[in-house]
Specification:
Helix content: 40-55%
Strand content: 15-25%
Oligomer: single chain
Largest sheet: 5 strands, mixed
Radius of gyration: 25 Å
Order of helices and strands: EHHEHEHEEHHHH
């Protein structure tokens, strides 16, 4: 499994550059987010796929850092595991259970490749290259969204009849205490 950036991924998906005899014309790609707990749960199984299918190029792309690829490849949620055949998106892994056996079955059904049957998920697969521990980082977009919701709700409350009554009560209490 290789972690790649957008330019390396696009180079891999240029099929003419990859058409050599020792490789297949299929590429397995996982779009992930480092902070996503679902991506972290899938990471070890995905990392083990690299050892099970050594004849297959298996890549992982940070969908948050390289967000320009999301619209191009239809990534609306992560983890998004896709098989590309001859530089085109062929199929997306669309099962709820992301176990190693389900991923192996998916790759076998789509590519026709046989896995190394002795491969199992090991401790080293939890280390990387795709990390199985989600990063903890502030979500500034979420904070901005909450501030926007609070400001809009406050504005609507102030303009409502209840808000006007509350403002009048505060004005009356203020005048009584002066």
């Amino acid at each position: 499994v290789r972690l790649v950036n957008s330019s390396v991924l696009l180079d891999f998906l240029t099929f003419d550059k990859n058409s050599n005899n020792d490789s297949t014309d299929c590429i397995l790609i996982m779009f992930y987010a480092p902070w996503c707990k679902f991506c972290a749960r899938t990471a070890a199984q995905f990392n083990a796929l690299g050892r099970a299918f050594i004849q297959l190029d298996i890549l992982a792309v940070d969908a948050v850092h390289f967000s320009n690829l999301n619209a191009r490849f239809g990534t609306v949620a992560v983890p998004n595991i896709m098989v590309f055949h001859s530089s085109r998106s062929a199929i997306r892994f669309n099962q709820t259970e992301r176990s190693f056996d389900k991923l192996v079955e998916f790759v076998m059904n789509v590519t026709g490749l046989e896995p190394n049957k002795s491969v199992e998920v090991e401790d080293i697969d939890y280390i990387g290259p795709v990390s199985s521990i989600p990063t903890i980082e502030p979500d500034y977009l979420l904070w901005c969204a909450w501030i926007f919701v609070i400001l809009c709700s406050s504005n609507m409350f102030i303009k409502s009849q209840y808000g006007q009554n509350a403002i009048e009560r505060v004005k009356t209490l203020w005048q009584e205490h002066q």
